[in-house]
Write a structure and sequence with these properties.
rod-shaped; alpha+beta
């Protein structure tokens, strides 16, 4: 009587191997996607393999490991979401700090300009040299824009009773502040301006 050759259960083997691989990658959040794919495939192959007459235990083990891999993958995704979310919050907080630094420079620059006005009763002649003599901690430049960086302020306009100052934040935003000593007072704007009216027309910061 010829011997009966029992066929193997390749799906059960594949499910077990994929389940093991999925669990290994599942412990590493950065490879959670790989763990998820292996886990799902392990569940599918293991489920089909359980219907075969041999290696049912191996198929069951593959399904269990596949389920564990899927759970670990989900946990990994949650961890990654939290980490990247914190990076985003850090970037936002850093940008706010950079904006506040540029705004502080503008306030200090305007104080220096008003000191100059008090002495001469005009903003005419207020330039980088005059500003530096009053407030040396600021990098003064003449022109509508100022170079990005800490403590940099551009004198866009200075004549008679009007002065307009601009500063660039390292976040990429620009800010202006302008003063009209004749009575209109001080205005601020989110953006670059070369005149009092232009700064007043911008959104206040």
């Amino acid at each position: 009587m010829p011997a009966v050759v029992q066929q193997g259960n390749g799906l059960a083997v594949a499910g077990l191997v994929l389940g093991i691989i999925g669990v290994v990658f599942g412990f590493i959040p950065l490879t959670a996607f790989i763990a998820l794919i292996c886990g799902v495939l392990a569940l599918v192959f293991g489920g089909i393999g359980r219907g075969r007459p041999v290696n049912r235990g191996m198929a069951t083990a593959g399904m269990v490991l596949g389920g564990v891999a899927v759970v670990l993958a989900i946990v990994g995704f949650v961890i990654l979401a939290g980490v990247f979310g914190r990076f985003g919050e850090f970037g936002t907080a850093r940008a706010r700090a950079q904006d506040r630094a540029a705004q502080s420079d503008l306030r200090n620059a305007l104080v220096a300009a008003k000191v100059y006005f008090t002495d001469d009763d005009t903003y005419t002649g207020f330039d980088a040299g005059a500003g530096g003599a009053i407030e040396p901690t600021i990098a003064w430049v003449v022109g509508p824009g100022a170079p990005p960086g800490d403590d940099a302020v551009g004198i866009a306009h200075a004549s008679s009773g009007i002065v307009v100052l601009n500063a660039d934040s390292d976040s990429g935003k620009t800010f202006c502040i302008a003063d009209d000593a004749s009575g209109r007072g001080t205005v601020r704007g989110l953006g670059t301006a070369s005149s009092y009216e232009a700064c007043a027309a911008l959104e206040d910061w």
